[in-house]
Amino acid sequence: MSRTALLALAGVLVLSLGVSVSAAVVPWKKGDDKPDAATDGDAGSTDLKEKLGETQYKRLVSPIEAKLKLAKKTMEAYDKEMEKPVDKRSQRLLLGCKQRAAQYYLGAAMAAKQAANRNRDEAVKAAIAEEFQKPNEQKAWTFSRLMLRIRL
């Protein structure tokens, strides 16, 4: 059952990456007026909060942040297990933590994609994609590849 969940996760990730790549292929979806990516997470959040307003920011970003909080909690459990000596570590727990973290990061990326689609302003869409969608897709992809490598 865990293999099917892993394959489903990889399939959803490939589909979401295909949709994000299609925007680069279709010229009218490029969004040439995208702002530069924020280097500091707090600065990007503040800028996005100013553009959206407090209530709309909470409505769009709170589902993303909830999933990121779960991913962080999962990775804390992973780090705690990694502090143990090698012979005392539970490989099953470590693999499960990576799998759940990948699912949470993918969920955050998909929530960010939905949040971006709910807004009409291209600058806001680009900010949400840069701050939440792309980094979380990358983390989900990295963890999924790691799990595939471990199982093979």
Helices and strands in order:
Layout: H1 2-25, H2 41-52, H3 54-82, H4 91-117, H5 122-151
Structure notes:
- The protein has a single domain, classed as Four Helix Bundle (Hemerythrin (Met), subunit A) (Up-down Bundle), CATH 1.20.120.
- Helix 2 runs antiparallel to helix 3 and helix 3 packs antiparallel against helix 4 (91-117).
- Mean pLDDT is 76; it is low at 19-42.
- 80% of the residues lie in helices and 0% in strands.
- It is mainly α and 152 residues long.
Summarize the structure.
With 152 residues, the protein is mainly α. It has helices at 2-25, 41-52, 54-82, 91-117, 122-151.
CATH architecture: Up-down Bundle
Shape: elongated
Global mean pLDDT: 76
CATH class: Mainly Alpha
Please provide the count of β strands. 0
Instruction: Give the class from helix and strand content and strand pairing.
Output: mainly alpha
Rg, Cα atoms, Å: 17 Å
Query: Distance between the terminal alpha carbons, to the nearest Å?
Result: 16 Å
Q: How does the major sheet shape up?
A: none
Number of domains: 1
CATH topology: Four Helix Bundle (Hemerythrin (Met), subunit A)
**Which range best describes the helical content: under 10%, 10-25%, 25-40%, 40-55%, 55-70% or over 70%?**
over 70%
- Show unreliable segments: 19-42
Strand content: under 5%
**Counting H and I runs of at least 4 residues, what is the number of helices?**
5
- The run of helices and strands is HHHHH
